[in-house]
Write a structure and sequence with these properties.
It is a single chain. The protein is an alpha+beta fold. The protein has two domains: 233 residues, P-loop containing nucleotide triphosphate hydrolases (Rossmann fold); 84 residues, OB fold (Dihydrolipoamide Acetyltransferase, E2P), CATH 2.40.50. It has nine helices and 18 strands. Strand 7, helix 5 and strand 8 form a beta-alpha-beta unit. Helix 3 packs across helix 4.
């Protein structure tokens, strides 16, 4: 088990902490995604876990053994972990296959080639095995970098924005294959992402960071269904955040502010509330309807496109006190 306890870090000559009082633990074979706005400390946290930075306060341990930063290790990093940064760090003067096998033992060359081939197949780069990396696109280089790490079968895999340069159609397949492969090989994965679909479809738990602080850490469904702040709720896309005066206009019985997701606003002819449509935007499967009830701005999903200024009726199906 990996445990992070009261972890604090600030860069030299900076007084503000980049990572502040982080506490969480990760079980073997769990998939953890770290989400948050740019500058929230996601990449820094991965570097601290891997041992590339010296933290000022706190503790990181793995299976009850304390882990230290580069000041305590001749070679930065921990042998049971592998870390894939956003720069990929490939050698352009050797082939893709040689890059993937760079850190593998030559004692058994057949086994080495087997591991290389398996890793390339996972990221769908087998046909590029004998190509040089400087002939590849950014997304392809990213996949080779991930394959090199998979081939070493670490106990813990740390990935910094691992799917950021992949085309959407390809990303869905590659993402699923990587996570499935890691689960099958009992590999713990911690990755950062800006794409909430990555977190939803791959993670067992989500860790939310805001300005270096851990705002929430829980199972995916709980973070989405029970966000503990407006910041967390807004990370998941469109959301209605209503203050006390606005909730009273919608007959919501709460003394707090309220969060209502668009799918929890039902547009129906039998609705008890009436609003005026401001905008309808096609979202692929349905329309995002922005409308106004008195002075309350709301958003909802609907299969039909409404005209601007059209009157609609609606009900509130569910809300969450905030």
């Amino acid at each position: 088990m990996l445990t992070i306890h009261h972890l604090n870090y600030n860069y030299p000559d900076f007084t503000e902490k980049v990572v502040s009082d982080i506490n969480f633990s990760v079980q073997k074979n769990e998939i953890i995604s770290i989400i948050g706005e740019s500058g929230s400390g996601k990449s820094t946290l991965l570097k601290l876990i891997y041992g590339l930075l010296d933290f000022q306060e706190g503790e990181i341990s793995y299976n009850d053994k304390k882990l230290k930063g580069p000041s305590y290790n001749l070679i930065p990093g921990h042998k049971m972990m592998k870390y894939v940064a956003q720069d990929y760090d490939l050698l352009d003067f050797v082939t893709v296959g040689e890059n993937v096998g760079k850190f593998l033992s030559n004692f058994d060359l057949d086994l080495k080639q087997q591991k290389i081939d398996e890793a390339l197949e996972v990221v769908e780069m087998s046909e590029y095995k004998h190509i040089f990396p400087n002939q590849l696109s950014g997304g392809q280089r990213q996949r080779v970098s991930i394959a090199r790490t998979l081939s070493q079968q670490p106990e813990i895999l740390l990935l910094d924005e691992p799917f950021s340069n992949l085309d959407q159609t390809l990303k869905l397949t590659i993402r699923e294959k990587i996570i499935k492969w890691c689960k099958a090989h009992q590999i713990t994965v911690i990755f950062t992402t800006h794409d909430l679909s990555d977190a939803f479809y791959t993670s067992d738990k989500i860790l939310v960071l805001e300005k270096g602080k851990m705002i929430q850490f829980d199972e995916v469904e709980n973070v989405r269904n029970f966000p503990n702040s407006e910041y967390v709720a807004r990370l998941f896309g469109y959301v209605n955040v209503l203050d006390k005066e606005e909730t009273s206009q919608l007959n919501i019985q709460t003394t707090d502010n309220a969060i209502i997701y668009p799918e929890e606003v039902l547009i129906t002819d039998e609705g008890i509330f009436e609003g005026k449509v401001m905008e309808s935007k096609f979202q692929g499967r349905d329309y995002l309807i922005k409308f106004l009830m008195n002075d309350v701005n709301l958003v909802a999903y609907h299969s039909k496109k409404f005209k601007t200024d059209e009157r609609i009726r609606f009900n509130i199906l569910k809300f969450r006190p905030l």
